[in-house]
Amino acid sequence: MSLCFCSILKPLILNRGQDFVSRWAPNPNIKPVQFFNLQIHGKDFSFKSVHTDGVGVIYSDDTVSERSSPPDAEPEAGGQAHEVVNGVTGTATEDSREATSEIRLKKSQGRVGNLEESDKEGRFKLRNGREVFEEKAYLVGVARKGDTDGSFGIEESLSELEQLADTAGLLVVGSTYQKLATRNPRTYIGSGKVAEIKSAIHAFGVETVIFDDELSPGQLRNLEKTFGGDVRVCDRTALILDIFNQRAATREAALQVSLAQMEYQLPRLTRMWTHLERQAGGQVKGMGEKQIEVDKRILRDQIAALKKEIESVRKHRKQYRNRRVSVPVPVVSLVGYTKAGKSTLLNRLTGADVLAEDKLFATLDPTTRRVQMKNGKEFLLTDTVGFIQKLPTTLVAAFRATLEEISESSLLVHVVDISHPLAKQQIEAVDKVLAELDTSSIPKLIVWNKVDNASDPEKIKSEAKKNADVICISALTGEGLDDFCNAVQEKLKDMMVWVEALIPFDKGELLSTIHHVGMVEKTEYVENGALVRAHVPLRFARILTPMRQICVS
Ligand SMILES: Nc1nc2c(ncn2[C@@H]2O[C@H](COP(=O)(O)OP(=O)(O)OP(=O)(O)O)[C@@H](O)[C@H]2O)c(=O)[nH]1
Ligand SMILES: [Mg+2]
């Protein structure tokens, strides 16, 4: 049984192994709540304290209601009052407020006891082929006041974070956000918001609080201290790293994710100091500090060893790529936001069997396949890892080796899910990462995918026609794929050079390669060979140089 979500906080050397369940088990201290407002799945709910105003009733299926029971309230007919606690209906016969509270408390305790057995059992879910404990998560975001740059709004960003949490195998029980001019350096959010989240933690038995932006190690530590012992605090970066960790299927991907996780972990190791300090009851001063230094040193050594290993894998990959270069078929790379449909397009065009599904980050490793066009021409198509807004820099750096595929391609095809309401923002996020990868010199073709899913496909198609670099397709239905291949061919032709060469009869294989990778205008058979006039890729033109010298123009 693997317990994936804790992996960020448990690098190899600090792995606490199977104690995860007990450390991150549902909080047994679920207490009655004070007055607060919460946003759950986009809806606003208000709660009142059990002690003062009445009975706040929280159902386990996330629906919330409120039942008022003032001190002098009459019991229901027959002297019985029905109670609903966490979706379980019970009956209380007493009409005294005190007695009712007591019974409620007992039931609540009973519920916690059950959680530790049956409910907890039911929360092991199969994710990405692994069994993951479905922790209860609460999401927190910050909207910067005056942010009008057209980027992702806070609600959209939180909704994406919810999808990420779901992909990681967490159960999102609520979310909240705050508009701030500047972030609080100590706790990222204001103290009022911190108190509100604390209430939510108690109300829902939240086990993990996830922030939508990267937190500094200090903020992380302060928030964990404030929220209390068993509640874990993490950020978007940790969540994405965890998904990558769950999804890494090859050794290279696993190594890269491990490196990114360790680099993320290194400055945050201080968290373990507080943990050790707690274990020592605060009495053995300095012990935690010493331990953290040891841990950091081990982690640094592991990072160095991992980098070496990745370098050797990278060398192999380069050798393989060089071999591919000797066959001068142009390489076209698919790039784009996660879930845009890159793998679906590769599968459709090449008959490949790359995992394509309605989940974020389905693909981590590049896959290259040969595309044979109807006119006999060929190009290599590479599927790459998808991008996301606020992509952690550690991850971009770690995947730089994989993304070398992108920087060495002849053409980039930017696949966009045009049916997505935030398509424009997703395009901007992808362009930002591409700029980081220094791909400005590589020509681009933009593909508006999922046109079948758009609310007005005809409008989208006519928009696309106005733009020379945009092709409209549906990778799912196959619509527009011929246009796509022709556009790729045209783009590739722009990058080819014009040659006229006399190919000797004993080099017949060169002639067929020209036909495969180039665009032949004319072939004439003369006494000592074939005189070819064609556009060919630059690399191939170099191979033809000796034959070009004897070319009869
Ligand atoms: N309606 C519709 N759905 C599509 C189309 N293309 C892809 N999809 C769906 O979109 C989802 C994501 O597709 P993928 O091909 O896995 O997307 P991806 O870009 O490879 O995603 P990552 O690997 O996460 O980067 C899948 O459920 C596909 O079936 C399309 O043209 N139309
Ligand atoms: Mg994919």
From TrEMBL:
Secretion signal span: none
Positions of the Hflx-type G domain: 330-496
Keywords: Coiled coil, GTP-binding, Magnesium, Metal-binding, Nucleotide-binding
Region (Disordered): 61-80
Glycoprotein keyword on record: no
GO CC annotations on file: cytoplasm
Keyword Nucleotide-binding: yes
Organism from which the protein derives: Handroanthus impetiginosus
SUPFAM superfamilies, per database record: P-loop containing nucleoside triphosphate hydrolases
InterPro entries tied to this protein: G_HFLX_dom (IPR030394), GTP-bd (IPR006073), GTP-bd_M (IPR032305), GTPase_HflX (IPR016496), GTPase_HflX_N (IPR025121), GTPase_HflX_N_sf (IPR042108), HflX_C (IPR045498), P-loop_NTPase (IPR027417)
Top-rank lineage group of the source organism: Eukaryota
Protein known as: Putative GTP binding protein
GO-annotated molecular function: GTP binding; metal ion binding; ribosome binding
PANTHER family per the UniProt record, alphabetical: GTP-BINDING PROTEIN 6-RELATED, GTP-BINDING PROTEIN HFLX
Gene3D superfamilies assigned to the protein according to its UniProt record, in alphabetical order: 6.10.250.2860, GTPase HflX, N-terminal domain, P-loop containing nucleotide triphosphate hydrolases
Coiled coil: 289-323
